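Figure 6 in text form: structure in, sequence out.
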């Protein structure tokens, strides 16, 4: 994702990924709030103290606020490039990460779609290599583009094997 003229332009994830991340974040916030509530009930029944449930509301509000505000930032910082010799991913709001997956290392590519992805008509490309550390997952690809993107990467993988 260099600024030189030879790099292809960086692509963004589908904007609906913000909604997917928000939904998942809100579910996690609810699970954490319920866990805090359960811990408070156990505490109140064993050692006493204030009424159980006092911390649930602040935890739920903080988690919900974070789940609502953080996904747009994640979306802003997600970029990928299907280059001529490697797939490049750039992620991270606080800790920036750049990952290159050379095509000659790619063994196969899966298209995954969970229930939320299906509802939003999105797919996730999972690029697998022989090494666990060089694979990559590319979320938020529109389902109608996922197969074409997979075929493009596989074509470049075959071209890299010919070299």
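Output sequence:
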């Amino acid at each position: 994702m260099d600024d030189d003229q030879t790099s292809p332009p960086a692509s963004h994830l589908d904007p609906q990924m913000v909604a997917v991340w928000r939904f998942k974040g809100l579910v996690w916030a609810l699970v954490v709030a319920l866990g805090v509530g359960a811990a408070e009930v156990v505490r109140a029944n064993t050692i006493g103290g204030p009424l159980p449930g006092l911390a649930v509301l602040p935890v739920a509000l903080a988690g919900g606020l974070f789940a609502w505000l953080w996904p747009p930032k994640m979306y802003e910082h997600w970029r990928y490039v299907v280059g001529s010799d490697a797939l490049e991913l750039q992620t991270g709001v606080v800790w920036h990460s750049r990952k290159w997956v050379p095509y000659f290392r790619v063994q196969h590519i899966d298209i995954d779609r969970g229930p939320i992805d299906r509802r939003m008509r999105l797919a996730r490309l999972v690029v697998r290599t022989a090494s666990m550390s060089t694979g990559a997952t590319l979320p938020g690809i529109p389902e109608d583009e996922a197969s074409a993107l997979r075929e493009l990467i596989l074509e470049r993988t075959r071209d890299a094997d010919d070299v």
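Caption detail: Confidence is low (pLDDT under 50) at residues 1-5.
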